[in-house]
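Record filed here:
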Amino acid sequence: MRYVPPTLAALAVLAIPASAFAEEEVAWRLFVADHDQPRVRAIDLESGATLDSFAIDGPATLYATKGKRAVYAVQGEQNRVAIIASGVEIEDHGDHGDLKLGEPALTDAVLTGERPVHFVEHDDQFAIFYDGGGTARIYPEAAVLKGDTAFREVHTSAPHHGVAVPMEDYTLVTQPNEADPKALPTGIWVLDAAGEKLGDFHPCPDLHGEATSGNLLAIACGTGLLLAKEGASGPQIEFLSYGADLPPGKVTTLLGGSGFQYFLGNYGADRVAVIDPSATDAFRLVTLPTRRVHFAVDPEQPKFAYVFTEDGNLLQLDILSAAITGTLHLTEPYSMDGEWNLPRPRVAVAGGEIAVTDPFKGLIHVIDAKAFAKTREIAVEGRPYNIVAVGGAGETHGHHHHH
């Protein structure tokens, strides 16, 4: 039988590595808490279909962690934190990630404590501060995802509206205002693995708001920011003052940038501050046309963040130039007058799209982030309010498995 040389096309197929036959897929899910009802909905972003709806004990604030495998529904009034498995798993293989999709599900694990409020993730652990008892509990996330809700606990001298941040074996925890525990905390202590105070007290009057960007943690104070990073002998802490040239005001909400190191904070009701701790001019203020309702940073396009303002507009903020570079009208006005927890829009970034809840209309507005244009809306029963996006891109392998 005569030898027939293989065609170039056939040789090309032989040269393709096995993983190339895997499909690259992008999947994003929105988890949306209702403002009035004790309910969280899981929505497929692409189709707009509700994947499931979970009855919990009260209206919730939602948090998703970096691992993306769970969404935590913090219900302060009910003394409970429910854990919803996202059904999204991205396994990192260095040169690519494997994406596994399952059904979202309300897990049996529930975290309980007196008035859980601040939820902070750091170093594969998360801390929940329980305002009612003035204690913080630190949970290793991998264990919690297996149903093990064991924690280590750190105590403060009085119940207060506080926060704790795990940093490896150490914990940063707030000091209540001794004169009036209902007032904001006055600073932080660093605790070692045994819960003992390490080093000096770090003053931070009117402490409220924290975020992480890269290896840097920032905590907002009335006078500036405390900056912490891990060091050989525990967290290293510095203070960054607002400086004399800034108008009166302070940061009380912080977000951490991804892609490069920066923080975004509010600075009064109608300004935001782009904060680069390494710059001489660390605080750059951006004046907004009206008061800020909510904001979010964009992990996929790191130079952008988005600010929703009370006139119903979503603003595109260029972090590098500290300037507003786009305005998109989405909703009727939502005034910032009145109670802080009235139903108002919330913003979440999901890959190349931005989702904005519209509680009065029962809608989620979906925006193409690159074009900065609205593409569609998703109708949601009730009053969609707090929202987180979970998902990403990865290879899906069907029958092909590799170890």
